[in-house]
Amino acid sequence: MANVPCEVIQDLFPSYVDGLTSEKTNEVIREHLKSCAACAKILKDVKGEAEEEIRPTERDVKEIDFLKKTRLMQRIAICSSLITVILFLLFMVLRTFVVGITFDGASFAVEKLFVQDGELHFQATSLDSAHVLSKVRFEEENDIVVIRPKAAIVSFFHSAGKEYTYKLKDEKNLKQIWLGNKIIWEDGAGISSLTAAVYATRHAYVGDASANQRTMNALNARSRIGDYENQLETAQEPYGWIIRLKENLPSSGEGKDPYVIQMESDMESLACVLIGVVGNLDHVTFEYTVGGEKMERTITAKDATEFLGQDVKDCGGSVRVLEALFQKTGF
């Protein structure tokens, strides 16, 4: 084997370098290289070419670095997205069950409201059974306190019936207390939800039909007098409002039916309130039928003033006067 030609040995170099030749062949190659400098040099060159093929180019290195950075950015983006989702879900849980969201005053029924020793005491319940009062913020400015309530989903985080207190800046000059956008107290007197709702719809002109309807809706007029039609008398003063009932009221034969008596009482109460909160309204006329017989009933501003005991138009400037009117009507 010592006389193996150089050509044969050189043909084996690629397999030898790649480790594909047997151990016996390797011994023959190594033995030949000991005495053949030319083949030894050629083997060195073959090894160098192989290493050059394996060694990554500068372009390869840049591509590998780019792929590594891209993969890192993808991992960061995924982690950031997961963290954002988790934080959002945590925020929604806290907002829904712990902190709560801001509700307007119409969403709560006031259970307790009084001022004592410079402190305002407030307690309310949510009109929605799925929510509970979770937080209250008090804002005091220009002798008015505004209560900003928040409600959360009913859970173990909050319990109903909690009383909130607020240290007033100036108890002596306190004029009004509002719950959200609804006034609930004025000059020492509590204001009912109905009074507050109607007071919020007060307006100057009976010719404003949409404003008239908002007032009627706040009064729940249809639940008291049934379906009706409106006719406005605004061609000349004094301005009037005709409310024409569509229901034919029952007749009991002798005397008035109790239902008719109650309806007429509601008509009078309704008219007094409308005249009180509509600035230029002078009179309200109800047209209705009892047992098929046409009836008409007119209540004027003078009548309403005599009933209230003071100018009925004061209702438009003071919710407390309007509350007094509601108290007298029993509405």
What does this protein look like?
The protein has 331 residues and is of the alpha+beta class. It folds into three domains: 6-54, no CATH class; 102-190, no CATH class; 197-329. 44% of the residues lie in helices and 27% in strands. The protein contains ten helices and 13 strands. The chain has helices at residues 6-17, 23-35, 37-54, 58-99, 193-199, 209-218, 221-225, 258-277, 301-308, 319-329; strands at 101-102, 108-116, 119-126, 131-141, 144-153, 164-167, 176-179, 182-186, 189-190, 228-233, 239-249, 281-290, 293-300. Strands 1, 4, 5, 7, 8 and 9 form a six-stranded mixed sheet that branches. A four-stranded mixed sheet has the order 10-11-12-13. Strand 11, helix 8 and strand 12 form a beta-alpha-beta unit. Helix 1 crosses helix 2 and helix 5 packs antiparallel against helix 6. The longest helix has 42 residues, at 58-99. The chain is rod-shaped, with a radius of gyration of 45 Å. The termini are far apart. 22% of the residues are buried. The mean pLDDT is 87.
